[in-house]
């Protein structure tokens, strides 16, 4: 099974170096960002010798692999993101700070997210100052705006047809177990429908890095994603 995934991952891997070398539109006003960062300081420190608190320190966060601070106890989901090779850049940070669960479903960061794009871009500009050698660091994909995981109210309002979802789910269940048992492939049963929809769109928009799931999600329409969300939200865990 492992080698199957490895081969598939290789076959599907997208050119990774597609980064703009400008600062992109995702970095705002660092001074204002220092203020916005007060929403984070209850859990995160940044600056010389910043320690870990409830959250990991945020020095050198640009270009840092997700979940990579030694000795910090990350959630299982963050450890999986580390295994998938998720790297923090302006784009992935923007998505995570906007809605942590869009990027990392089971994240322990209990933070509602910053919905105002200006707030996010300012706080990113602030954090950017604590990453050395900026010239080597990817800032954001050129198409950053298309990658946003903010879903329009119309997408979120689609009422999923659970019966159609059951039909579509057959393919998913070749990997994801009904019982939700968790051997490298995460459980997708009994989720909140909205979290499920947001996660699938994050693969579809390639903000989440997993190539197999990106391919799966890219083939699904908004209605199909809603149908799957409705089905998996109600599925019995019958082993
Ligand atoms: C209530 C506490 C809390 C608040 C508030 C909070 N975070 Fe976090 N943050 C965490 C925790 C806990 C983690 C580790 C998450 C995990 O393991 O799933 C984390 C992880 C992160 C990571 C990933 C770090 C890594 O090593 O991969 C970033 C980046 C981050 N937070 C940024 C922010 C920013 C920016 C803010 C403010 C806008 C913020 N956080 C607010 C608790 C918090
Ligand atoms: C070839 C095996 C395979 C198939 C088929 C598959 N998945 Fe996945 N899925 C995975 C793996 C592996 C992960 C973990 C990816 C990651 O780390 O981001 C995953 C992750 C997910 C997640 C995010 C879980 C989390 O905890 O963040 C969702 C939601 C999901 N899959 C839904 C689906 C749906 C819906 C289908 C069917 C349309 C499907 N998957 C088909 C292997 C598969």
TrEMBL record:
Q: Which UniProt keywords apply?
A: Electron transport, Heme, Iron, Metal-binding, Signal, Transport
Where in this chain does the record put each Cytochrome c domain?
Answer: 28-131, 160-236
The superkingdom listed in its UniProt entry is Bacteria
PROSITE patterns attached to this UniProt entry? CYTC (PS51007)
**Where does the signal sequence lie?**
1-20
List the Pfam families: Cytochrom_C (PF00034), Cytochrome_CBB3 (PF13442)
Q: What is this protein called?
A: C-type cytochrome
Q: Which organism is it from?
A: Thalassococcus lentus
């Amino acid at each position: 099974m492992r080698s199957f995934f490895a081969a598939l991952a290789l076959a599907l891997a997208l050119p990774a170096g597609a980064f703009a070398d400008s600062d992109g539109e995702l970095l705002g006003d660092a001074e204002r960002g220092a203020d916005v960062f007060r929403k984070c300081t209850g859990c995160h420190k940044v600056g010389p010798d910043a320690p870990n608190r409830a959250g990991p320190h945020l020095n050198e966060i640009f270009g840092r692999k997700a979940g990579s601070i030694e000795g910090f106890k990350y959630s299982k989901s963050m450890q999986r993101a580390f295994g998938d090779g998720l790297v923090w850049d302006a784009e992935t940070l923007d998505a995570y700070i906007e809605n942590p669960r869009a990027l990392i479903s089971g994240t322990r960061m209990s933070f509602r997210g910053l919905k105002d794009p200006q707030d996010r871009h300012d706080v990113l500009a602030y954090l950017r100052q604590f990453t050395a050698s900026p010239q080597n660091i990817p800032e954001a994909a050129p198409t950053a705006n298309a990658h946003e995981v903010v879903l329009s109210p119309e997408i979120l309002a689609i009422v999923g047809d659970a019966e159609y979802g059951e039909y579509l789910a057959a393919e998913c269940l070749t990997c994801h177990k009904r019982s939700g048992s968790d051997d490298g492939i995460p459980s997708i049963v009994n989720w909140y429908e909205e979290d499920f929809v947001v996660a699938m769109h994050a693969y579809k928009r390639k903000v989440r890095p997993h190539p197999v799931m990106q391919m799966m999600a890219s083939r699904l329409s908004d209605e199909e994603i809603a149908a799957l969300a409705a089905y998996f939200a109600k599925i019995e865990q019958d082993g």
